[in-house]
């Protein structure tokens, strides 16, 4: 029974360590995305063209 208490204690310590490491990484900006906003404007036209094509197809189907 004492082994179970020992394993639970060790697992809680490891979990707290990983939680601390994750929070520290988030606060330091490790997960900030600096690349996507600068490239988003390059792909924005393609998204609009696809949307316009879909809208044209829908209107043609409604007219038929």
How is this structure best described in words?
- Helices cover 84% and strands 0% of the residues.
- It is mainly α and 64 residues long.
The average pLDDT is 79
Distance between the termini: 75 Å
Percent helix range: over 70%
**pLDDT < 50 runs, ≥5 residues:** none
Shape: rod-shaped
Strand content: under 5%
How is the biggest beta sheet arranged?
none
Count of helix runs: 2
Structural class: mainly alpha
User: How many strands?
Assistant: 0
What are the secondary-structure elements, in order, as H or E? HH
For this structure, the quaternary state is single chain
Question: Radius of gyration, Cα only, in angstroms?
Answer: 26 Å
Topology:
Blueprint: H1 2-27, H2 36-63
Task: Summarize, please.
With 64 residues, this protein is mostly helical. The protein has 2 helices and no strands.
Keywords summarizing the entry:
single chain; 64 residues; mainly alpha; 2 helices; rod-shaped
């Amino acid at each position: 029974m004492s082994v179970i208490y020992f394993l639970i204690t060790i697992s809680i310590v490891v979990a707290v360590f990983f939680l601390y490491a994750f929070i520290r990484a988030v606060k330091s900006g490790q997960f900030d995305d600096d690349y996507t906003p600068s490239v988003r404007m390059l792909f924005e036209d393609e998204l609009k063209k696809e949307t316009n094509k879909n809208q044209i197809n829908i209107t043609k189907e409604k007219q038929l």
